[in-house]
Amino acid sequence: MMQEELVGLGIETFKVALILSLPALLVGMFLGLAVSIFQATTQINEMTLSFIPKIVGIIIVIILTMPWMMNEMQDFTIRMFNMIPTFIQ
Question: Is residue 34 part of a domain?
């Protein structure tokens, strides 16, 4: 039983990490795609043109989703602390 609980805990940890990183990754991907299309149509091959919009977009998304991220991390941490007695036997 203990091994199954630990595997479940690991899976839940990866799910929380994926859910928390998904907004920033999606914004970075879509901004990168938009900048790549713009660069392909205008034939401008400037490296900072692709880097700066992605960084700014990701920072804005992280700032906007920070309260939600903190609530998710807090809920996960509380669940982990509540599970400690089940692992100590």
Answer: yes
